[in-house]
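Consider the tokenized backbone below.
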């Protein structure tokens, strides 16, 4: 049994196309919601509202640091501009990966071993995004927050309608990201399924490529021509010549008929 590393086949072509359609809709969704959130549509607003409600730290720590000439504190990842830019970047990367995968799959060059690199990368990126959006905030020990309040609590805890709208949009962004993460995990599962040993690994590569095991028309071919007499394989004589075998030579010698004399008689 020879394990095929590169030219492996996908187990289900239909599943691949279904997942690509689902991935297209999810990618468009995250592109829209991440693009709307950039650069700071609701991040600071939710941060400040959470502090006023007693759920997390205050964004004023940045101003306090500037006013007191102190180094900037380590802002929780959930409230940073880096997370917003990161989300926009991975949505663009996802669209590029999807187009590359679609074209390569149609051209039959999207091999599982190549797709494994893309799928593992996307799972890692979207896991980071989901963690960041629902991440903890322990900047202020008086207001510890293991999970972002707009994820853990209903938006109605805020009386301000504008904050409620921003909270709803943040929840929708988180849901779209979670769906995209689920799709990438399913794609990785299909990828691992295709990489597992299967019946294709047991096939003889010589028989598939028309090598020493068979002729181009599928007729079995012996690696040692001298032993073909021991096999029950029909032999077709070539035009203009008479094939001779050791058995034929022996009978001709007994009959005192030389091969060249018989051929040109």
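A designed sequence for it:
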């Amino acid at each position: 049994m020879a394990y095929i590393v590169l030219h492996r086949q996908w187990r289900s072509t239909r599943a691949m196309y279904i997942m690509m359609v689902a991935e297209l809709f999810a990618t468009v969704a995250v592109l829209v919601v991440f693009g709307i959130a950039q650069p700071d549509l609701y991040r600071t607003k939710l941060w400040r509202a959470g502090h006023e409600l007693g759920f997390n730290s205050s964004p004023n720590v940045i101003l306090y640091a500037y006013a007191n000439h102190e180094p900037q504190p380590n802002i929780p990842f959930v409230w940073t501009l880096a997370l917003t830019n990161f989300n926009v970047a991975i949505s663009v990367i996802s669209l590029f990966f999807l187009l590359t995968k679609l074209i390569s799959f149609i051209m039959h060059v999207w091999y599982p071993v190549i797709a494994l690199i893309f799928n593992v990368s996307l799972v890692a990126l979207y896991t980071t995004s989901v963690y960041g959006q629902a991440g903890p905030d322990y900047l202020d020990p008086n207001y510890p927050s293991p999970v972002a309040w707009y994820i853990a609590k209903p938006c109605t805890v805020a009386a301000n309608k504008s904050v409620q709208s921003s909270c709803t949009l943040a929840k929708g962004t988180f849901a779209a990201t979670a769906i995209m993460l689920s799709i990438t995990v399913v794609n990785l599962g299909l990828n691992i399924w295709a990489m597992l040993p299967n019946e294709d690994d047991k096939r003889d590569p010589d028989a598939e490529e028309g090598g020493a095991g068979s002729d181009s028309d599928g007729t079995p071919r012996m690696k040692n021509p001298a032993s073909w007499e021991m096999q029950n394989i029909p032999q077709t004589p070539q035009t203009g010549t008479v094939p001779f075998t050791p058995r034929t030579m022996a009978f001709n010698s007994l009959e005192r008929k030389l091969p060249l004399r018989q051929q040109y008689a």
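The radius of gyration is 35 Å.
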